[in-house]
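Hey,

The postdoc asked me to send both predictions to you directly instead of through the lab channel. I've kept everything plain text so nothing gets mangled by the mail client. Protein one:
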Amino acid sequence: MESFKPEGHERRQATCEGWTINVTSYRLRDRYYCKIDNNDPGATISRGQGETREAAEEEALRKATSRLALTRRIQSTREVLSTMQQSVERLSSELAELERISQQAGQSDPELPSIPRND
């Protein structure tokens, strides 16, 4: 039975899209394999393989870059949406206060038109 013992195991840290990542690569028979995981908690981000270590790492890094960039965009979009939601809530409160003041003024001054509400 043929043995499948990994050879040339290398592990290093790098930075990708602002995250610290671990790049692990090794040779198994005539192929090189690479796994990229985030430093903490160590979840696999991507894998790659190729005829050379460089090819395997390049494939894995390309996938990791794409995935981590998407993660960064999602985080950024969530932050923007949260800020917009807070602004909408603040504006809604201000509008409600203006409508309340307008209705009070309209009750005391019959010359002022009332503002219809869309409830």
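Protein two:
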Amino acid sequence: MEKILLEFIATLDHSLKKKQSDGFSQLTVSQFQYIDAIAALDSPTMSDVAARLGFSKASATTAIDKLVALGFVSKTQSEMDKRVFHVGLTEAGGQLVQAKFQTLKEYGDFIAAALTADEARQFEAILTKLVQVFKG
């Protein structure tokens, strides 16, 4: 089981990096988590992002500052409280998110085409169950 699971994950990772080598290849899984959290929240603060991911504010600040340096995230100081910074995706960050979702859609379409309709339903049900178990 471990061998095929590792092969499946490596194949997915390779596909993502091949599709968007300039963006995906330079980011870690953790950095993608930050980008996804920022994309999902509306003008979040560093604390909002940290809370969503379950990380400390200090860790979030360090990670987000690196994403700012890479050009995927922007930081804006709050007008109301100068201690607070809001973060958002830059155009490059938004394009990266779109490319990621497009690649995942294509990968899902590829998997669906390789399976029968019944197998596809079973595969989705198994993945859903595993995600629920992992989330606790």
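Summary for protein two, as requested: The two ends are 22 Å apart (CA to CA).

Thanks,
C.
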